[in-house]
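S.,

Sequence below, as promised.
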Amino acid sequence: MTLFSRLLYSGIAGSLLLASLLLMAVAISRTFIGFRTGEGALDTMLDGIGLVIIAVAVADVGKFLFEEEVVADRELRRPAEARGSLTKFMTIIIVALSLESLVLITKAARDKPADILFPSLLMLVAVAALVGLGLFQKLSQHATAAIPDDVGDDEDKSESGKPTKGKPRRPSRRTAEA
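The prediction came back faster than expected:
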């Protein structure tokens, strides 16, 4: 990965983490002001929880980008690596959708029960994303099993079979029985 790419992804991850911290500060500030004034304390707290959920999801996406693009410094050559990265990212999104829909369902049920349709649909979207992720895991498991772990390692080895300098060889996950 080039220096420019590392700097770019570091900047993006840093911006996302900063935005997350600002969202947390806004949530704490609004909740504190709501409790201090006594106006709609429960609604203010639910809004604060919603902001914290979004802030945590934004922070997780920033952390994910930093870990995958800057720290790991690798291309996703193996299906298992790509599957793991996609699973990690989708899990962040699914958890955020689920928690946010729960907060919205609670607010709608308290304020206007007739407005519960949108939060329920959001929960349905989260469940559909979870089912889709499970289906992806099941279908991609066959592709991962069909391709040996050392397929992309040819470039990492010299003619003697030893790993080249600077690229440590990962131990095989296969057992002696295979």
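Residues 1-74 form one domain.

Coffee later?
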